[in-house]
């Protein structure tokens, strides 16, 4: 049995133990059992369902292999065939022909078990990589070969196991390392791999492929964790669903080039490796020095994708984002970008801030364009001196004005890049990252070489002194190009970035950091260690955002999503969507508004006021409630309320029954489910207005246009009281408009419509 006494002592969260030759790593819903085999290889006996350490005997037997073309560690002992073993570490050139977790510039490696230690804490990294924090125990297993040791660290936090590898050079020669993974696991069984892929304005699209005998790879080689392939991925048994089935979740605490691969072996093991991408990776580890990998994160649930998401969400909140932001409500913000772009001055910003305040926004963010000669994106990056033409009172004057209005003030920076048309580049052309070829620009800019101390010092000084010069409580840290010319420097660049973030933000814990990289080009656990939220995507079209936020929700909690309402029709898709849908999608994240307020109608302003008031009322639940993906919508649940939104794409011509199947309610309790009331715009009916209202109006005429600006009609709203069992079975929703005129007993919102439902407990009495 697991030592529950020890778990209790530790708050019931985890235990690591060594018993009868087996290492047991136990979280609440997950266990990992490891054993050293007679040849000193580290075997993975089990990773998955919680079991006892003494249950190792259930995973004891191995296929008797080792004939034919295979290699044996001991001639004659068929159990010593490394290619057939289920391992937690391996190496190249010694008979295991599956993927190797390390490469030493082409030579073989034969690390065997040396010792272990169980430590009562998470062991700090020495190299400046971010890592999971909080109370956790750590198992350190050391393997060695002549001239080198490998320390494998396993920590457990709640339901999540975190793992990393440290190579120590104990010899006299430099070790040239071309690959070192954070984790290797040989899981029993066959799986499908789900990755989250995409590109600019189309991030985090889930794709699922079976893991067969060829390697399936999830990798980024852009220098950032990338919008192409998020470092997080899932392995699930075929047939797993939201609430059932065995699913593993994986991620990496890293913002640079990452790599993960899965491949099934003939014996039915699935090898999973995770770490820094070996593409262009090369590092020299000098005698006496160490190289540390980022932390690999892994969890398991037998309650489907939803179970994995909930474990990962808790982990990110409690052990990844800076502790001061855990559970701390985030302000509703207004961002100047989509409304103003580069064209603003002090007066326009103050006027926008007044309007934003009147709507209920709490934080005013000045985006790009406030410094240097930054009137478009060709110039000025790198020159963080305020543009006095636009802002004659400086950031201090603007910030104080905004504070006087009762709002917080936030600022955009893009410190890692430089335009060639900038004073910084003219003074220090050698600070830009280039190779021996003609420089390649992305968004008219180059990256600064963050591997150079003087560059890091410049950024820390410029950003730090700007933050201290005005009442700034929020920073949007952007990075708008994929890198080239990084080569071997890719990892040192990321270490440089982490140093800069640490030096700027750790001494200023009051500053809320939202990172951004053309939207979600660096949406990863590494960045989240410095700032608790990330701008998910430059795509704010709500229909696109449903896909993006839903993709991210598999591995990241909604409080990490910067989610804004923007103008309709949308700048990227030209799609017109109802304001209610734009609001409902953004509610499931850190809500913001990013549009030109001066063009809003009075009725739209009123609708936004109501949206913000509702969001503030339920903010804790929207930001930190347990999130679930539903059929056609999302749900968040707090202690005493559940909120569920349904999202529609196209309205069918002959709509059928529609139901809302909630999750996680108490079957016995009774709940009131009610629609958040919403209004229909008259203009939406065009020439049909005579069918829906008792008047005959010219659809292109002035009267209808005026009426559209002032008159709204309530849409159908559902109100029922039923048991949790019934609501989880699926309450039938009001019928959808089907050519029969306006009726308050139906939902008339049309294409891209959405509803929000509030579900509150009303006790056990039947009513
Ligand atoms: C990037 C960001 C946007 C905005 C612009 C400003 O595209 O993703 O949100 O900040 O830069 O130039």
Percent of residues in helical segments? 10-25%
CATH architecture of the largest domain: Distorted Sandwich
- Identify every distinct bound molecule in the structure, by name, code or SMILES: alpha-D-galactopyranose
How many helical elements?
16
CATH class of the largest domain: Mainly Beta
Bulk shape: globular
So, the CATH homologous superfamily of the largest domain? Answer: alpha-galactosidase from lactobacil brevis
Overall mean confidence score, pLDDT: 94
**Count of DSSP E strands?**
41
Structural class: alpha+beta
Poorly predicted tracts of residues: 1-5, 7-11
- Overall tally of domains: 3
Distance between the termini: 47 Å
Radius of gyration from the CA trace?
28 Å
Percent in strands: 25-35%
CATH fold description of the largest domain: Beta-galactosidase, Chain A, domain 5
Largest sheet: 10 strands, antiparallel
